[in-house]
């Protein structure tokens, strides 16, 4: 006997959307982790060498370390878990928050509700705020995993027989962590030794304001650009709801969210990597928190530093965004809640 689709706005619809979103995040980062790793390693090491181009950096990295060891597996474990949390919660809660804002708007305006639904969809501002709130939730939960992922990618290099790096930012030193779970326990233990439970939480969520801020801006710009352009193109009769519309709206969203998130992305990479690299890097970028890190970057390199890595970032976000929304829309269809409307 066929089961009926969950009713709009129900808990079953929310649960189905959360499942579709979480699986989407885990699949997409598994496929695109090499580009994410390249972006991080270029921001930390490659872009600081005069005359060193991105192309030359990639060739050297692949020759010395290989695609799998140098790019694909680095930080893959924590990245899968982080994206499962962040994408799962931000995409999972976004329609609920957006539609809730629509109902709230109608209740203040006195407009009649139709079966509990808003009279019309919220506009770009409502979409942006909905994405911002959903993104804050997802990226706050994922913050410890993203911290570990960034540190693993920033220090990556070719390992020698002695277990120490032969290349990369920590050349001559052993990896800081064996895996994501050991990394989390090590961070928690170091924090607990200084301040008990609160100290452990403080270390695990170190730089969380930066991660949450970047994630919220990325989510808000990406979801608002995707939802808004999809709604507009469909309303104008340019494209009907389907894969072609999903890809078109995704590409628009990729340009918008890459540009909006890059400054926070650069600061996040430099701040978190400084705690792993130590020495001069920590003194310059890690001692005074994320704001101090941003001020140092601006003073040393000027405002263009905040867009270093835009090309590899867009190279990651474009396929990531297209795959993410395409897979997400298909999974929504599979679990019986239809395309995002």
Automatic annotation (TrEMBL):
Stretches forming Solcar repeats: 122-232, 241-334
Top-level taxon of origin: Eukaryota
GO annotations of cellular component type: membrane
InterPro entries named in the record: MCP_dom_sf, MCP_transmembrane, Mito_Metabolite_Transporter
Membrane topology listed for this record: Multi-pass membrane protein
This protein's UniProt keywords: Membrane, Repeat, Transmembrane, Transmembrane helix, Transport
Subcellular location: Membrane
Protein name listed in UniProt: Mitochondrial carrier protein
Organism of this sequence: Polarella glacialis
